[in-house]
Every structure is written in C-alpha cells, then in structure tokens.
Amino acid sequence: MTKPLALLLHEKLMPGSQLASRFDQLDYRVLTLSDPAQLTEVARREMPMIVVADLAHRRGDVLAALASMHSDEALAHIPILAYAGREDEKQREAALKAGVRILATDATVLPHLPQFLEAALLVE
Question: pTM for the full model?
C-alpha cells in the first residue's frame, strides 16, 4: 500500500525539516517545495493528501499560491494546514479566504501536528 503524501511548502530550515521528519514518523511520504509558484503544478501532478505551508516566505506570495491551488477544481478538496510566526486576525482571515483549513503558529505546528492533521483531514 502506498503511503499518503504530504506536500510541504517552506523556506526556513526550522520547523520545515522537523515537519518533514515528523511526517515520516507518521508514515507519510514527504515532498518539499521552496517556490510557491510551483505549488499548483506539483499538487496537480502528485495529488497530495495534505498541503502544509509556511506563510512567512520571502520568495513568493504563499497565500496567492494557496488560493490558486484551492481554486483549481481538481485540487480544491486537498486540505491546507498553514503556519505563521504569530497569531494575527488579518492574516487568519486572508488564510481562510485562500483555502487554509487550519492555521497554526510556528511554535504549535510541530508538537500538535497529529491533532492538526486529524482536524484538517476530517471530511465535511
């Protein structure tokens, strides 16, 4: 049986590499991207079980990339878990509008990953 795929979009080594390791421990395959512009193309080709994205990115607009992926009919069902440095109501609203299902902070995403995954993967 093939392991589910987690597509990680991050630029910073921490917590990105720690998340990849944690997903491996949870029996997921992991594909890592550093360029938000590639997200929709790679998601369409690989069809991940979940997308996890760091909103703090200097190389591109992560929210725009997530919104583009989420607006694609073939990809709209893929849950998105995003994380950022801190809680910010304006950012939360923008993230939800872009299709993010769960928004966490850098400090909470790793220790609570199993719970976030469970919540993100719930079928509505």
Answer: 0.91
